[in-house]
Design goal:
- This protein has about 300 residues and is of the alpha/beta class.
- The protein is about 40% helix and about 15% strand.
- Helix 1 packs across helix 8.
């Protein structure tokens, strides 16, 4: 597929009032799509919507809390009323927690909040948009934002990893379903590594005051870590992006949008902002060696 096939059609990007969502929205606009800028911060959404319009396409801002089904349904209604046909849905809105904390120190509210936004927000997007997407012709694509935290163990971030792992499984299953049913809808999982966004501060600001870290006695995860002497030199992996070589360290969110557009064109199941972490190969090796066939018991 050529991205030009989607030019003039609509796109919806949640969490696009800044960071990666903004980058994705601008990249889609640059490719000729009209974009709904959906964010819980309406002022931020409005500012990005104006930037999208400056690229010569149509755009509307929309205030939405993706954890609320009725608000996501309202977003879908507004998007189809504005553009008539949504070719791309990006379920990008997400939250995290700071400071990192042990799973045993986190509250039920911590876990529920993380799941409500990071997983149920993705699910709500599918429920609201897929029936409408099925009813229109032409190629369509859904991007669900996960995290490299699901690929490499991240101590102190259990709730976030659990929610994003649910996104992984849901995305792979729905991609298989849409392919088998010939719906013409592709699904990709976006795995951001370290990207320079304000998600930590924003997440805290969006929580109820009583749940914010500044109002609670939270034991930072680092207090549990047993310090050991580092052995050997630090290893760094590099990857090429355009003419610039980046170490596997924090990148600017502006790099992410073009990656997403290319993945849509190629209908790729995965989008990696950084090289695959060594933990992926280590997990595969461990899984492969963990199968130990034995003689079946006699009935």
């Amino acid at each position: 597929m050529q991205i030009e096939d989607m030019a003039g059609r609509g796109a919806v990007v949640t969490g696009s009032g800044g960071g990666m969502g903004r980058s994705i929205a601008l990249a889609l606009a640059d490719a000729g799509l009209n974009v709904v800028i959906a964010d819980i911060d309406f002022d931020a959404a409005t500012a990005v919507s104006e930037q999208v319009k400056a690229l010569g396409v149509a755009s509307i801002p929309f205030k939405v809390d993706v954890s609320k089904r009725d608000e996501v349904e309202a977003l879908a209604e507004a998007a189809y009323e504005a553009f008539g046909d949504i070719a791309v849905l990006v379920n990008n809105a997400g939250v995290t927690w700071r400071p990192f904390r042990a799973s045993w120190d986190a509250t039920d509210a911590d876990f529920e909040w993380m799941m409500n936004v990071n997983f149920w927000g993705v699910y709500n997007g599918h429920r609201a948009f897929v029936p409408r997407m099925r009813a229109t012709a032409g190629p369509k694509h859904i991007i669900n934002t996960s995290s490299m935290a699901t690929l490499s163990p991240t101590a102190g971030h259990a709730a976030y990893t659990a929610a994003k792992s649910a996104v992984d499984g849901f995305s792979l299953a729905t991609r298989a379903e849409y392919e088998a049913a010939a719906f013409g809808i592709g699904v990709s999982v976006l795995y951001p590594g370290s990207v320079k966004t304000g998600i930590g501060a924003t997440s805290e600001r969006l929580r109820a005051s009583a749940e914010q870290a500044g109002h609670r006695q939270i034991i930072p995860w680092e207090s549990y870590v047993v310090k050991t002497e580092a052995v050997g030199a630090e290893e760094k992996e590099t990857f090429e992006l355009g003419e610039v070589t980046h170490f596997q360290q924090a990148i600017a969110p502006e790099w992410v949008g073009p990656m997403v557009v290319q993945a849509i064109v190629e209908n790729r199941p995965f989008i990696m902002t950084h090289p695959t972490p060594p933990a992926v190969d280590a997990r595969a090796t461990e899984l492969n060696r963990s199968y130990a066939p034995s003689t079946a018991p006699t009935p």
